[in-house]
């Protein structure tokens, strides 16, 4: 078996066999194929696609290129994955809420890249927290606390890291087959009993339309269920930031206000929709509504906050963070309000533009190795449909330098459209698939 024969099949629009895809995944992981061959493989899949059987085979082969976790727990092992958005810190809310409802959640997450933030970056805005655990440490934290939000170890789906880098430089990012294999291989390697996918659509997401979201959701759920992991996708709206802040520490602050106070907001609605599906599919709730109610109850009654505190402590964070979170989170040195230039309703928000503004402030990265400043970002972002007067605050910029704050303020004004009539605000939860 060799790379040339597999590449020739792809060039002639034939799907490689299960054995050939397994060989390619292992060769990606151990470096047996060159960068040129890896890039050609990605391009062949992108241009000519795989069959449904081939997509499942590639996903499982990438999962099996490294360790696959095994669990011996008294409850179901569940997780979620988001396709990415702005102000999307659902994981920090949902993981401890699910743990409080009797599930175990080994949430293998990623870092921010491009205009969307990363869960690991947000969690590491909390002093002392480390998200790189060994398999033994991960199993201990999950067994004791019920949840752990961590990065993938080097031996979890190693083919994923190679293909991820190749996909970026070979301009094959928009291949549904590659997206599916990359997303699911890591999740399936976690040894899950159930998975829910939060497929975002709108200006702040990678997928802009309902049709794009449906296509991805159907491909992901079909593949994951064929791989014997019970999976449902929820399509949710990202036409505006999910919380009114963008930036790592600022988003953690929003989560803490919800965990220790209001227990309400669009992010709670999304967490309930996702958690309801997971709990119902796993048999921890009679139906999706009962599961959603259980998630909301865990958040509002403080049970999720208690699990979050225990998880942070186990990851090296402050033992009293939940009680005194304001004193631990880093703060920017330059704070600047962005005022409405005229009266009107907030009719449209370009979430992607806001995300890039945060990247320009230093709160995100263009390359995986770029450093991230956890303190910078945007807060108090006005919601769609809000009526504002001239001079009223549209957002607040948190920056290191004045010139950065100036650019961010301009970006905010360019990203927010004011009109004379109140817009129709989309429903937060659009559809459930699978």
Mind explaining what this structure looks like?
With 434 residues, the chain is α/β, with parallel strands linked by helices. Helix content is 47%, strand content 15%. A 4-stranded mixed β-sheet has the order 1-4-5-12, sandwiched between helices. Helix 2 (18-30) crosses helix 8, helix 3 crosses helix 8 (158-169) and helix 5 (90-100) crosses helix 14 (303-314). The longest helix has 17 residues, at 210-226. The radius of gyration is 21 Å and the shape is globular.
Please supply descriptive tags for the structure shown above:
single chain, 12 strands, 17 helices, 434 residues, 15% strand, 3-stranded antiparallel beta sheet, alpha/beta, 4-stranded mixed beta sheet
Summarize the structure.
The protein has 17 helices and 12 strands. It has 434 residues and is of the alpha/beta class.
- Amino- and carboxy-terminal Cα gap: 36 Å
- Given the helix and strand composition, which structural class is it? alpha/beta
Write down how many β-strands occur, each being a DSSP E stretch of 2 or more residues: 12
Averaged pLDDT, please?
A: 94
Strand order of the largest sheet: 1-4-5-12
Strand content: 5-15%
The run of helices and strands is HHHHEHEHHEHHEHEHHHHHEEHEEEHEE
Unreliable parts: none
Biggest sheet record:
4 strands, mixed
- Quickly count the helices: 17
Percent range of helical residues: 40-55%
C-alpha-based Rg, rounded: 21 Å
Q: What's the quaternary structure here? A: single chain
Shape: globular
């Amino acid at each position: 078996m060799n790379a040339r024969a597999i590449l020739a099949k792809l060039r002639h629009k034939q799907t490689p066999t299960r054995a050939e895809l397994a060989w390619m995944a292992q060769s990606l992981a151990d470096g047996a194929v060159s960068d040129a061959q890896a890039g050609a493989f990605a391009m062949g899949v992108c241009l000519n696609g795989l069959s449904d059987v081939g997509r499942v085979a590639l996903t499982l082969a990438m999962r099996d290129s490294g360790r696959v976790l095994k669990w011996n727990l008294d409850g179901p092992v569940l997780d979620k994955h988001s396709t990415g958005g702005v102000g999307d810190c659902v994981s920090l809310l949902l993981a401890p809420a699910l743990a409080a409802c009797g599930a175990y959640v080994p949430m293998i997450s990623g870092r921010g890249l491009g205009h969307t933030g990363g869960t690991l970056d947000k969690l590491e805005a909390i002093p002392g927290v480390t998200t790189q655990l060994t398999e033994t440490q991960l199993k201990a934290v999950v067994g004791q606390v019920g949840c752990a939000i961590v990065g993938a170890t080097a031996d979890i789906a190693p083919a994923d890291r190679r293909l991820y880098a190749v996909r970026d430089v070979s301009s094959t990012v928009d291949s549904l087959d590659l997206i599916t294999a990359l997303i699911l291989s890591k999740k399936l390697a976690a040894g899950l009993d159930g998975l829910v996918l939060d497929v975002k659509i709108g200006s702040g997401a990678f997928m802009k339309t309902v049709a794009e979201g449906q296509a991805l959701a159907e491909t992901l759920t079909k593949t994951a269920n064929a791989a014997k992991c019970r999976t449902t996708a929820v399509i949710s709206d990202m036409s505006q930031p999910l919380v009114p802040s963008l930036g790592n520490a600022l988003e953690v602050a929003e989560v803490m206000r919800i965990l220790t106070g209001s227990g309400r907001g669009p992010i709670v609605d999304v967490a309930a929709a996702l958690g309801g599906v997971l709990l119902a599919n796993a048999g921890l709730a009679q139906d999706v509504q009962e599961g959603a109610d259980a998630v909301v109850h865990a958040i509002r009654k403080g049970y999720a906050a208690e699990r979050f505190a225990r998880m942070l402590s186990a990851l090296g964070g402050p033992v009293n963070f939940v009680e005194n979170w304001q004193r631990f989170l880093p703060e920017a040195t330059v704070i600047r309000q962005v005022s409405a230039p005229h009266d009107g309703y907030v009719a449209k928000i370009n979430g992607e533009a806001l995300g890039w503004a945060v990247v320009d402030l230093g709160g995100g990265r263009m390359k995986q190795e770029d450093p991230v400043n956890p303190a910078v970002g945007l807060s108090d972002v006005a919601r769609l449909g809000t009526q504002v007067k001239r001079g009223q605050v549209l957002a607040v910029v948190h920056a290191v330098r004045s010139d950065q704050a100036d650019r961010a303020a301009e970006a905010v004004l360019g990203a927010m459209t004011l009109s004379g009539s109140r817009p129709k605000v989309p429903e937060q939860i659009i559809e459930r698939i699978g």
